[in-house]
Amino acid sequence: MTERTARNLFVESPSGADLRRLQSARKIVEYLAEVAPARFSVQLWDGSMVPLGPDVHPDFFVSISDPGVIGSILRWPTLENVLTHYSRGNIDFHGGDLIDFLEVARNTDTPKGFKARNLNKWFLFRQSLPFLFTPSKSRNSRHGWARDETGKDESQRNNTEFIQFHYDLGNDFYKLFLDPEMQYSCAHFTDWNDTLEQAQKNKLNMICRKLQLKSGERFLDIGCGWGGLICHAATNYGVSAHGVTLSQEQYDLSVEKIERLGLKDRVSVELRDYSSLEGTYDKIASIGMYEHVGIANYPTYFKTIRQLIRDRGMVLNHGITRRAKSNRKRFNKISPEKRIIKKYIFPGSELDHIGHTLESMEACGFEIHDVEGLRDHYALTSRMWCKRLSANEDKAIELVGYERYRIWIAYLAGVSYSFTDGSLRVYQVVATKHKSKGASGQPSTRSHLYE
Asked: ∠ at Cα 347 (344, 349), nearest 5°?
């Protein structure tokens, strides 16, 4: 038990009302252990441990700091309320980091075909009555986006503010879990045992090979992050590289890196929106950026890229997508999970399905040559990020605070399992600008990707 957990536990002698709440909580957990057994225990606010099944792991348990947590969730049974309680430590997971805990939790003994609607709701309601009016701590978090987090309201959409909300937490924070090249996108594992550092180098080289970068070419990276790709491409492939970002923190570190590596004659970076760019480039990459654009803005996004690239110039668009639904209405529905991501992590973001992305690119004059799915790679990448950030808990809390750190741990763990299970996907799309008639100019095989 951590000091923080011990501090949160109810340690005074329980009153009659408190005893009734403890008895009810135990009955609820014991009932769930019978109908939906799991491999961990529940620690109540008096320190008692109630197994959530017959075969629980001795080290893994979830703790509830006080009866008001249950009362709060009963009154506001939303995922955001649960996240808020977790972020404040009112609900906590023990036995390992959150990835470890979720692995145990997902390894359940619950019978196949079990549905929550089959629970004895009348029994659960009766046991919940002692909690309905139990006072709880504030359920409002101070760390969410204060305005329209969906980005649908154009009067409130400010791409710079959206980007800076996420990326300007500080470079020192991101250094706690990213690789030395500060790659904040899906790594590429040529072997599932690769280190994160090796897998991110693999990714940089794969992007450069897919774009067939050649010495002397002009290369643009839209949403260049901390400058890793533009510096790598200039150093290893001889291009003249330019990057743009809306994050002040990313820009500052990119400038420092370019100067440190002595690349000022070949690499440049601007604090600038992609839509205002001018000039002509041979190759363009957009890595993990178009998720921030908004689907309604795809015509502007892809047309801008088309204007910036020469005929037969190559584009690589790399980004996270969602699975297509049976109709657009279902696809556009904002689930509680998506709303939380928009409010606390990526305001203004929107994920497309790959079919519509390809349609949008073709409608804007691009010819698609290659589409590669990297879902399993991102599941492992985000898993590594989560575990690395967890290992640096004390420093992370010092930098961004306890609540925000916990929100990020929940975010990274959730993303990892979303990629593992397939609700999230990620694709690299290679295309060329198709302006004049004639051959595409592409090689006859893909051997250049693996030489």
From this structure: 125
Task: Give the whole-angstrom CA distance, residue 269 versus residue 264.
Answer: 10
- pLDDT tens-digit map of 229-267: 999 999 999 999 999 999 999 999 999 999 999 999 999
Tens-place pLDDT, residues 262-310:
999 999 999 999 999 999 999 999 999 999 999 999 999 999 999 999 9
- Which residue matches tokens 């492992």? 380
Which residue's entry shows tokens 């969906």?
A: 150
Dihedrals phi, psi of 41, to nearest 5 degrees: -110, 170
Q: Which two tokens stand for residue 51?
A: 């197994």
| CA angle centred on 199, ends 283 and 389, rounded to 5° | 115
CATH number of 159-449: 3.40.50.150
Q: Where are the alpha helices (DSSP H) in 261-321?
A: 298-308
Name the DSSP letter for residue 220.
E
Rounded Cα distance between 411 and 279, Å, is 38
Q: What distance in Å separates the CA atoms of residue 451 and residue 194, rounded to the nearest whole number?
A: 19
Question: Scanning the structure block, which residue is given the tokens 């501090």?
Answer: 7
Instruction: Find tokens 């090689």 and name the residue.
Output: 443
Over residues 345-362, mean pLDDT: 92
- Give domain limits for the chain: 3-131, 159-449
Give the span between the Cα atoms of 292 and 209, in whole angstroms. 25
